[in-house]
Design brief:
Radius of gyration of chain A: 17 Å
Helix content of chain B: 25-40%
Radius of gyration of chain B: 36 Å
Oligomer: heterodimer
Shape of chain B: extended
Pfam families (chain B): IMS
Number of helices of chain A: 4
Protein name (chain B): DNA polymerase Y family protein
Keywords (chain B): DNA damage
Strand order of the largest sheet of chain A: 5-6-7-8
Domain UmuC (chain B): 27-150
InterPro entries (chain B): SulA_CellDiv_inhibitor, UmuC
Structural class of chain B: alpha+beta
Number of strands of chain A: 8
Largest sheet of chain B: 6 strands, antiparallel, barrel
Chain lengths: 174, 509
Amino acid sequence: MAALETGRPCGQSCAGFGLPPGQLLLACARTAAEVLWTMEEGLRCASLSAIIGEVWGDPRALGFTATKRLAMRAERQGVHVFLVRFGGAAHLSAARERWRVRSLPSSPHPYDPKAPGSPRWQAELFKGRGMRPGMWEAGYDRAAHRLHLVPALRNGAMAVAAGPASPAGLAVSR
Amino acid sequence: MERWQWRQAQHRRQASPSAGEAAEDAAPLVLAREGPHGPVIHDVNAAARAADMRPGARVTDMRALIPDLVVAKAVPDQDAADLVRLAHWAQRWCPWTRVDGADALLLDTTGSDHLHGGEAAMLRDMKRICAGLGLTARLALAPTIGAAWALARHGGNGTICSPGGMADALAPLPAAALRLDAGTVLLLRRLGLKTIGSLAKVPREAMVRRFRRIEVPTCNPVIRLDQAMGRTREPLVSVQERAPLRVLRRLAEPLGDLDGLERILTDLAGDLCAVMGDSEAGARGLRFTAFRVDGVALTAAAATSRATRDSAHIVRLFAGKLDRLDPGFGVDSAALAVVDGEALIALQDDLTGETKEALAMAQLVDQLSARLGEDAVMRPVSLGSHIPERGEVFRSAVRPVKAGDYPVQRLGRAPLRLLGSPEPADVIHAVPEGPPARFRWRRKLHDVVRAQGPERIAPEWWREPGRSRLRDYYRVEDDQGRRFWLYREGLLSDGRGGRPAWFVHGLDV
């Protein structure tokens, strides 16, 4: 369903975020339970660097227990796991960090005022273990290959130094 | 001492088996195939041969000679397949058999004649059994392939030639018996060398000087003579196939539960891996078959993305599939077979650990595709096309894929996500070719704040019909910062249809 609604990832643009398309492996599952099973199988494999699962809506299979299983396995394996949810509600989840991401008008294009510039997002950390929740404006710096997090509300939450520095931070666990 | 045996199975009887042997041989019968100018005789039986009919002649001419000639259609493909079957069947006499040409078999009976009561008794046995099958066999037994070939075709039927008497036995035979082509035989005839004996009397130096430049054996009588006399080696490569990689376990008691089936599978996988290790093979496709007591065979199949010999991995591949089998009243035996295999030598870990990582990745792909389906686990492959949905496609990761010959790298920015197929949108745009100002897509209205484009992609005239239109791609951002990749198909003035349509093709561009 997520693939129907939002399409499939495009390998060539992944290359723009520093991921060679040849290293991308895409698995299409029919149900949310299969998505979770696929992610768990991926966690058993030692050669993956990150796993991104996409789920549409609020399936029954995606309960607290399922997310806890995933989180604990991911911590034991030391692999980044991202669960991207579209069109769902923020129910109970055992994810270690939960972000809510919205699009923002992009930054001005350096050469063309009418053209969209580099993308920006509003990222809200509403739950995180050992972190203070907050809201940031995120932008991707292509040259330095990292995400910039700028505090949106000037509430002094600059203490969060653990901003995701990996490009896969685009995918959001909510 | 090696002994070669030659057997010639004459053309298959096309007449019905109920017809008597005598009646069959009495009437001239020919097999015909299609020639460039009407049907041509493919082969003839003894009576027709006696009436001076030869393969290659036209059927109409022969009908003029014998009006009641019986003509049947030749099926050379089926004859060849039958001959292969016959070669396997002939392994009842010796383990090394081979098809030779269109109508002959070669058997290496070295060391197996005593099992049949000696050479003469073995030939009699062969003749009797072939006659039982309705085949006329011409047999000869000789120390070399060449001598056996010559004696079977041009010597007496059932000749047994000893190593000492080989030269004498071959001497009266015509030069054509040396497996030479017609041109060389004609050349030898013009030189006055009509028999093998006369050829053997020519000084060897002279023969070698005359034929030293010819390397094709069928044109070089020196090579053929040496082969027939046993002065050079000529090995016989048997049709023997590699044994199928299959293991079977029979159970003392029928087994009714699935847990037992899993345990059998574990045992079978261990057995199979030992068998594969012996023959340095690896499995790409596997089939598990459980035989139920009531005569039903239950099967489950699995495929791997690279050859494997890991029993634990094989068991994991079948994990979800055994549950679907219904043991019924019980399973009394089970087999695990490699349906698709390839050579797999032992892998050694290198210092960088890359082998291990690639192996782990391949195992993951197998695991996922075993449950989700082979086509659900994919990798992107770049192909040589600028049209986005054609330039990069996702192909199954199980089968190894090769990138196109000329993969295209996009210069412009591609969207992060590409829709499966472009979706139509209603767009308000500046006429005639301006960027979009507002569009409706999936029943939602988006106001375009910023737009960049167009990026024009021309149609691929060598693939598409001539009416296909070009595409102008725009990167578009709406008032909430959502970014789309839209394109307009065609121009108003290109003369290839009415007003151009707009499509949304990608997101997060």
